[in-house]
Amino acid sequence: MTEAGGSGGSRRSRGCERERASGSPPEEGRVLGLDLGDARIGVAISDDDRRLAVPLGTVRTGAPADLKAIAALVDQHTVTAVVVGHPLLLSGERGDRAHHAERFADALRAVVPVPVVLQDERLSTSEAERSLREAGATGRDRRRAVDRSAATVILQAWLDAERAV
């Protein structure tokens, strides 16, 4: 796991899908946000009051080590819910990446004792790259930070949507 700093924002228009047999996530406590990439999973975490998402780092992809690493983070940070980015197509349809995120969320539900929900992440990587570019990050630094920054954007969108309900 690598550590990083930064923050992200989002718009209320992004949707959230709750998918857990035990119901919706509790209304308080830290939430972990995940952005699934090909080589890395970006990780962000909220504060206890669920107002702000901050980057936590990355986890290398590859089952089952990635699931075990995320389960360890859930335990280590006393997380009460996990939000997984759901990369829908711009049309709102589910493509291959969205199906992958759904399968990953299902696998994660089998190893963590907290609710796992999907959050629409359309354009989150673009938003993260733009924020990093505006912050002055160079191409190489930006590529390293984009996964955790995208996770922050996804998690902040979910936090904002939950507060608005």
Distance between the termini: 33 Å
| Name of the level-1 CATH class | Alpha Beta
Quaternary organisation: single chain
Major sheet: order of its strands? Answer: 1-6-5-2-3-4
CATH topology: Nucleotidyltransferase, domain 5
Rounded Rg: 14 Å
Give the CATH architecture: 2-Layer Sandwich
Q: Please trace the helix and strand order, writing H or E for each element.
A: EEEEHEHEHH
Output mean pLDDT. Answer: 84
Count of helical stretches: 4
State the share of residues found in helices, binned by percent: 25-40%
The low-pLDDT segments are: 2-22
So what's the overall shape?
A: globular
CATH superfamily: YqgF/RNase H-like domain
Which structural category do the helix and sheet elements fall into?
alpha/beta
- Proportion of residues in extended strands: 15-25%
- Total number of domains: 1
Q: How many E-type strands? A: 6
Please give the largest β-sheet: 6 strands, mixed
Describe this structure in words.
Helix content is 38%, strand content 23%. Strands 1-6-5-2-3-4 form a 6-stranded mixed sheet, sandwiched between helices. Helix 3 packs across helix 4. It is an alpha/beta fold. The protein contains 4 helices and 6 strands. The N and C termini lie far apart (33 Å). The N terminus is likely disordered. It has a single domain, classed as YqgF/RNase H-like domain (Nucleotidyltransferase, domain 5, 2-Layer Sandwich).
